[in-house]
Write a structure and sequence with these properties.
The protein has six helices and two strands, in the order ααββαααα. The protein is mainly alpha-helical and about 150 residues long. The chain has one domain. Helix 3 packs across helix 5, helix 3 packs across helix 6 and helix 4 crosses helix 6.
């Protein structure tokens, strides 16, 4: 069996995906959904691309603010890379917490639409700087990722 070339995969991914989704891990774990996302299969892996560059900018702004606020809540060193479990807690808990504050939390996990939630919150609060991060951080801290299948 040939050895897997991670660098070649990253180059192909960069060439194939014009606008990456900042909440790709949350979408791949199926804790939320997004009407603007496009699922792609690339080198036997699943990837998520954003189909709307303008909305992606709003999501990216929220993603960055979410990470800034979650560092203290999840006890993460600002200089250290984010462990996968804490990244999932930040993304899934953050989107679900924001959806809860604007009344857009879906009946099932994938019914909670990231793009729609961020756009609704922007129209309600004006910008991502004004989002109620104290409430969102409660959802981040209390979010429990799905357990792995045995």
């Amino acid at each position: 069996m040939a050895e897997y070339n991670e660098d070649a995969y990253k180059l192909a991914r960069k060439a194939y995906i014009e606008h990456s989704c900042p909440f790709e891990r949350a979408l791949l774990s199926r804790c939320v959904g997004c009407s603007r996302s496009r699922k792609l299969n690339l080198a036997e892996r699943e990837a998520i691309a954003c189909g709307d560059a303008a909305v992606r900018e709003h999501c990216l702004t929220f993603y960055r603010a979410l990470h800034d606020n979650a560092q203290f809540a999840l006890r993460i060193n600002p200089d250290a890379p984010w462990p996968f479990g804490k990244e999932i807690r930040a993304q899934c808990g953050g989107v679900r917490g924001l959806a809860e504050t604007v009344g857009a939390l879906g009946d099932t996990d994938t019914d909670t639409d990231i793009a729609a939630t961020v756009l609704l919150a922007n129209s309600r609060f004006g910008s991502s700087d004004a989002f109620p991060y104290s409430e969102i951080m409660r959802a981040v801290v209390h979010y429990e990722p799905r357990k792995r299948r045995p």
